[in-house]
């Protein structure tokens, strides 16, 4: 499975205010949700700055995560558009180095750690503003622009539920406990569509 993350607009970091980016997730050309994240680094050779810049364009792996702070927070469930609560079986985890992540699987990271080649990982979790992201990606149902010129999302828990449910069709707990992965590889292809 390939999830396309098409970035459609970005605002820069300026005057001490963090910038932000808005895009879409699609699977098989079908819209899933909008996505809010940190500002995009327009210089692809520049180092990622924790909590200030988004992950690089290109192909990344998504793996399931069942540990850490966001995993614990998710145990109360995400509020869906129907008003019901969805308790996700995992937190989607975007990684640069799947083999390295699998070896360190028990380690509890804090979002958006970086390596010399870019991000080591980022999570997909609920949140509506750039202050919620720290390098992670925030699914939202719609977006507006706030007073600082940044993108602000709505109904992030519902959008995160919808996205996670699509990935959950490729998840089996017994397989995960053996491999730390989905039943088949899931990729995130990040592209910039803005100039």
Indicate the radius of gyration in whole angstroms: 16 Å
Average pLDDT: 83
Task: Describe the sheet with the most strands.
Answer: 8 strands, mixed
Spatial strand arrangement across the major sheet: 10-7-4-14-1-2-3-11
Tell me the β content: 35-45%
Please tell me the total number of domains.
1
Q: Classify the oligomer.
A: single chain
What class do helices, strands and sheet pairing give? alpha+beta
Structural account:
With 195 residues, the chain is of the alpha+beta class. It has one domain. Helix content is 16%, strand content 35%. It is built from four helices and 14 strands. The protein has helices at 69-74, 98-103, 156-168, 173-179, and strands at residues 2-11, 20-27, 30-38, 58-65, 78-79, 85-86, 91-95, 114-115, 118-119, 121-123, 138-140, 142-145, 151-154, 186-192. The strands form four sheets. Strands 10-7-4-14-1-2-3-11 form an eight-stranded mixed β-sheet. Strands 5-6 form a two-stranded antiparallel sheet. A two-stranded antiparallel ribbon has the order 8-9. The longest helix is centred in the C-terminal third of the chain and has 13 residues, at 156-168. The two termini are 28 Å apart. Mean pLDDT is 83; it is low at 98-117.
């Amino acid at each position: 499975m390939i999830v396309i993350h098409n970035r459609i607009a970005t605002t820069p970091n300026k005057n001490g205010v963090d910038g932000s980016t808005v895009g879409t997730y699609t699977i098989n050309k079908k819209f899933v949700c909008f996505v809010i994240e940190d500002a995009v680094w327009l210089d692809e050779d520049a180092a990622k700055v924790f909590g200030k810049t988004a992950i690089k364009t290109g192909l990344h792996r998504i793996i399931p995560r069942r540990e850490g702070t966001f995993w614990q927070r998710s145990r109360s469930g995400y509020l869906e558009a129907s008003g019901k609560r969805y308790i996700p079986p995992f937190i989607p985890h975007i990684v640069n180095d799947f083999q390295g992540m699998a070896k360190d699987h028990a380690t509890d990271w804090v979002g958006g750690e970086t390596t010399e080649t870019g991000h080591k990982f980022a999570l997909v979790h609920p949140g509506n503003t750039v202050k919620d992201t720290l390098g992670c990606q925030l699914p939202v149902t719609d977006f507006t622009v706030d007073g600082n010129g940044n993108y602000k999302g709505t109904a992030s828990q519902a959008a995160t539920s919808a996205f996670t449910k699509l990935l959950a069709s490729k998840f089996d707990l017994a397989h995960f406990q053996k491999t730390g992965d989905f039943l088949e590889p899931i990729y995130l292809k990040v592209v910039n569509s803005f100039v």
